[in-house]
Amino acid sequence: MNSSDMILSKGYAAYDSKSGLKPFDFKRRPVGTKDLLVKILYCGICHSDIHTVRSEWGDREFPIVPGHEIIGKVERVGGDVTRFKAGDIVGIGCMVDSCRKCESCKAGAEYACEMGGPIWTYGSEEKHIGGKTYGGYSSNIVVDEAFTLKIPSGLDLAATAPLLCAGTTTYTPLKYWKVGPGQKIGIIGLGGLGHIAVKLAHSFGADVTVLTTSRDKLNDALKFGASSTLLITDRKAMKDHVGKFDLILDTASSKHEINSFLNLLKRDGKLVLVGLPSEPLSINAFSIVSGHHVLAGSGLGGIKETQEMLDYCAKKKIGSEVEVIPIQKVNEAYERVVKGDVRYRFVIDMNSLNKER
Ligand code: NAP
Ligand code: ZN
């Protein structure tokens, strides 16, 4: 490898868990034969980015360039690339590689790669040049075509970026548990994941109720396709809903009293956790055993399923509600996400990187 072929990238990084994000220049690996060089246009801000850079999920190695909801334009392709060409609009989500040989990878579940997990878009080992992988809050990325998604034409690109994580993370469990007509589905949390989950579950024909802590989000929940809403702080309303749901998808990002949600399930009902609060949730065995309930979890989908989700969303015209910001506002945006004050996903316009330095 010739080091002069390394690619200069400009971005924003956290240098420690407390000081917020600041400008950071670094190098990407040279474009390999199966790689694409992608100019990043938009990148969504996922709550996982915040958990990670604040070390809420445990200590991390810094600097960290977050970002795994990436939309960009292919600038250059390696000699053996077959599925993409310069000028194509592409997506990159949470993973940029995996072993591709284990049972999970072969089954299209690269997120569960049995060789120690996939290579995450940021914070994993960069096996080509050493160091860590750096994510999408940056001007460009070099990525293997096998982990690159095709973006159907005619889409609003900023509204599509959040589908690369929030979309796949909600589509996968709704599909896996066969959510559809005749079912009453609850979505806990109307944030980035939650509002896309509402649109998806509604499009699958389910009867959707949003369970929220925010009174000022109730109207939006109905606009996104919910038929009803439930304020979690309203004890009487919660009591009235005991035993009513076939499935509840829990996207809450901070610690919560999960037993009160398990009690809302019908017999055989399922509560599927996708939110990842940093503190443990405390489960009363009676809330699962008594109603023959299932407590399940789900992460993002594999690459094939993520492509299926993107094609489905294009067909159904499902996108994220977004607030597009320049990168210079990223720290302010983080504060607002943590307060639940986002309508409903911040997406960084990466062109704003040119405005400084
Ligand atoms: P977000 O935009 O901040 O939305 C989270 C929402 O959860 C908040 O807006 C709030 O909605 C609700 N909430 C927060 N604390 C709550 C509590 N104590 N009780 C009830 N509801 C609460 O975050 P996001 O980007 O959607 O991510 C949500 C969670 O999923 C994060 O923990 C993130 O790390 C995780 N995640 C997991 C995966 C995966 O692979 N499984 C992928 C992406 C993200 P209301 O205002 O409506 O109450
Ligand atoms: Zn994410």
Listing every helix as H and every strand as E from the N terminus to the C terminus, the arrangement reads: EEEHEEEHEEEHHEHEHEHEHEHEHEHE
Mind describing the biggest β-sheet? 7 strands, mixed
CATH architecture of the largest domain: Alpha-Beta Complex
What is the percentage of strand-forming residues?
25-35%
Question: In total, how many domains does the architecture comprise?
Answer: 2
CATH fold field value of the largest domain: Quinone Oxidoreductase, Chain A, domain 1
CATH class of the largest domain: Alpha Beta
- Coarse morphology: globular
Approximate helicity band: 10-25%
Cα-atom radius of gyration = 20 Å
CATH superfamily of the largest domain: Medium-chain alcohol dehydrogenases, catalytic domain
Report how far apart the termini are.
30 Å
Hetero compounds: NADP nicotinamide-adenine-dinucleotide phosphate, zinc ion
Q: What report would you give on this structure?
A:
The chain is α/β, with parallel strands linked by helices. It folds into 2 domains: 196 residues, Medium-chain alcohol dehydrogenases, catalytic domain (Quinone Oxidoreductase, Chain A, domain 1); 132 residues, Rossmann fold (3-Layer(aba) Sandwich), CATH 3.40.50. Helix content is 23%, strand content 26%. It contains 11 helices and 17 strands. Strands 3, 4, 5, 8, 9, 16 and 17 form a 7-stranded mixed β-sheet that branches. Strands 12-11-10-13-14-15 form a 6-stranded parallel β-sheet. β10, α5 and β11 form a beta-alpha-beta unit. The longest helix is centred in the last third of the chain and has 14 residues. The radius of gyration is 20 Å and the shape is globular. The two termini are 30 Å apart. The model has no long low-confidence stretch (mean pLDDT 97). The structure holds NADP nicotinamide-adenine-dinucleotide phosphate and zinc ion.
